[in-house]
Amino acid sequence: MKLIGMLDSPYVRRVAVSLQLLDLPFEHHPLSVFSAFDRFREINPVVKAPTLICDDGTALMDSTLILQYAESISPGRSLLPSDPQRLLCSLRVTGLALAACEKSVQIVYERKLRPEDARYQPWLERISSQLLAAYDELERELASGVPDIGCGAIDQAWLSTAVAWHFSRRMTADIVPEDEYPALAALSARAEALDAFRAAPYGDGAYPVRF
Question: Fewer CB within 10 Å, N or C, the chain?
């Protein structure tokens, strides 16, 4: 399989880390939807990252749909609980993490792509408040303590949360203060030390990064 997209996208990075933990080999092609638009379009006319080119040539889009497929073909472990109640809790956390990703990306696009004189401050304030609301909820989820995510114990909920937090801190640090979210900061630090995260670090590099 081939994963197309840059690891500075939380959605691409979420897939890259997950595929490793699901024991699914893949090639990574770090193409930008901006600077490599035409090359990306040759692979997927929609030019949406992440794109996963499956072994039969099918192109899948959207990180959640890609990971749903990946779960179905994983030879061993799953990143989702099998118990319905635990799955419900996991999906809630994952939804909050993806909301944080979405709002962070919207802020980045508003700041970097829209001319300064065309920015709409009420919209920025609205999506910023939504971003902080997602992290407030995630911090509350960690009130009883940061989970043990080492030795293959991390699941999709906390994987997605860690990826989202790292992205937000890199791109919207002025909006998301680390000292107000100590549990999320601790979770992120633990996750970034895992081999699967270190092999697919945030940035413009290509998986696997050797360490």
Answer: C
For residue 50, whether the previous peptide bond is cis, meaning omega lies within 30 degrees of 0, is: yes
For 30-77, the pLDDT digits (tens) are 999 999 999 999 999 999 999 999 999 999 999 999 999 999 999 989
Q: Can you name the residues that pair with 4 across neighbouring β-strands?
A: 29, 51
Radius of gyration of the chain (CA): 17
Residue with tokens 């999906």: 91
| d(C-alpha 192, C-alpha 186), whole Å | 10
- DSSP, collapsed to helix, strand or coil, labels residue 142 as coil
DSSP-assigned letter for residue 203: S
Angle, helices 156-171/84-112, rounded to nearest 10 degrees: 20
User: Of 163, 169, 167, whose CA–CA distance to 197 is shortest?
Assistant: 163
